[in-house]
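for the recovery benchmark. tokens below, seq after
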């Protein structure tokens, strides 16, 4: 087992200065749920879900209404305590939260669905992380994830304005919030397929033309329209959504 103490300390530092509920981050949570809902409604077996990196628990509470049981893991102490209190305050009894990294988590059973929104760009070793995801899945499990999109409209605009030299370039804010990388549709597909996943669906989440501090002032109906417009221009969306299964040796029909 690797020693992840340094990595966890860094995540603790990020949690002290960053929020997934504040500002436009809070609005993005709504559109991630809209995208996830389209897939989860078609999943037949919903006994056990695993949420990796639950942050402040916005998605966790929603998942509790869709699955019989939810295990949420969150290594950052501040987020873990915050979400634990939120779960208890809302009297949600089908969610268990654990203060772990996925790499340190050893469940005694396999999950029907694993969800990781805004996580893969934070992990030190994506291959190690994705192998662990595979280990937590049975042959009919689903893995649903989102990552920031390097080729989003607002990053293209930033490059055109000379604010960034390359669409995959990490800026000061990225380092501040613990990002290690950006993905586009091609590189995410390659990352997943190389590490044993079969991709069922890839879509964009929200056509986002401007930075968060400007987007937060936009009317809700305007942002809703940008979500639907993003279906027409997925490679320009703020985030990439992917639904996949792990590759198995025998031919198993989808559930």
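predicted aa per position
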């Amino acid at each position: 087992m690797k020693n992840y103490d340094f990595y966890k300390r860094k995540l603790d530092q990020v949690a002290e200065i960053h929020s997934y509920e504040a500002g436009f981050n809070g609005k993005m949570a709504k559109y991630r749920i809209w995208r996830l809902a389209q897939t989860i409604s078609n999943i037949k077996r919903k006994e056990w879900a695993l949420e990796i990196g639950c942050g402040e628990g916005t998605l966790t509470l929603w998942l509790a209404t869709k699955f019989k049981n939810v295990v949420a893991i969150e290594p950052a102490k501040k987020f873990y305590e915050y979400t634990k209190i939120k779960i208890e305050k809302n009297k949600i009894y089908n969610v268990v939260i654990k203060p772990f990294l996925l790499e340190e988590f050893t469940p005694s059973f396999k999950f029907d669905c694993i969800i990781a929104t805004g996580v893969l760009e934070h992990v030190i070793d994506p291959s190690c992380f994705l192998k662990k995801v595979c280990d937590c899945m049975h042959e009919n499990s689903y893995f649903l994830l989102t990552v920031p999109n390097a080729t989003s409209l607002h990053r293209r605009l930033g490059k055109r304005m000379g604010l960034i030299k390359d669409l995959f370039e990490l800026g000061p804010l990225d380092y501040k919030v613990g990002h290690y990388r950006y993905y586009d549709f091609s590189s995410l597909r390659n990352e997943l397929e190389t590490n044993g996943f079969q991709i069922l669906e890839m879509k964009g989440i929200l056509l986002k033309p401007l930075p968060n501090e400007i987007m937060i002032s936009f009317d809700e109906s305007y942002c809703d329209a940008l979500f639907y417009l993003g279906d027409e221009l997925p490679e320009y969306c703020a985030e990439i959504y992917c639904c996949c299964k792990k590759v198995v040796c025998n031919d198993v029909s989808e559930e």
